[in-house]
Amino acid sequence: MARIEQKLQELGLSLPPPARLPPGVVLPFPWVRLVGRRALVSGHGPTASDGGLALPLGKVGRELSVEQGYEAARLTALGILASLQRALGDLDRVSAWVRVFGMVNAAAGFNRMPAVINGFSDLILDLYGPEVGAHARSAVGLAELPFDIPVEIEAEVEFDGGS
After folding, report:
1. Cα separation of 58 and 160, whole Å?
2. What is the pLDDT of residues 39-53, one digit of tens each?
3. Residue 162, pLDDT score
4. pLDDT value at position 56?
5. 32 FRET partner, CA 20 to 30 A, in 17, 88, 98, 106?
6. 0.85 cut: is pTM over it?
């Protein structure tokens, strides 16, 4: 078993199937675009174990607590990892997490976006360690996100040339 998959299993985590979008929604872009040895990951939201949108939905700081936002960011990490696995064939091919852009569906006055997006970063660092998993990051609050998801995260990783 691949090293990252084994770590996921040890943590009691599993990767979700491809995202199931709401009826009538068509995305005119790929979830992951490979450019040279870089994988550009489109914005993902929290994914449930069946590929649907994970609940709860809403704004962090109003409908969701910081802890629920953190969990939503962690679920988003699993969705991104699943998309990378489908694109690369093996998560062990990731040689560097380069950049992460985290967006939080924030209630007016909420300013703890970094604490929410830590749900993503903490899992990546747990899985890949500080050398591969460390990444540049932004965590911003937005007035709205698609489908009322609490977080959306995009990323850029570098990968090795294996198959």
Report:
1. 38
2. 999 999 999 999 999
3. 62
4. 98
5. 106
6. yes
Hey, what long-range contacts does 25-31 have (CB within 8 A, 24 or more apart)? 31/83, 31/86, 31/87
- Residues lower than pLDDT 50 in the chain: none
Take residue 157 and report the two structure tokens written for it: 């990783």
Q: How many residues does the chain have?
A: 163
SS3 of the chain: CCHHHHHHHHCCCCCCCCCCCCCCCCCCCCCEEEECCEEEEEEECCECCCCCECCCCCCECCCECHHHHHHHHHHHHHHHHHHHHHHHCCHHHEEEEEEEEEEEEECCCCCCHHHHHHHHHHHHHHHHHHHHHCCEEEEEEECCCHHHCCEEEEEEEEECCCC
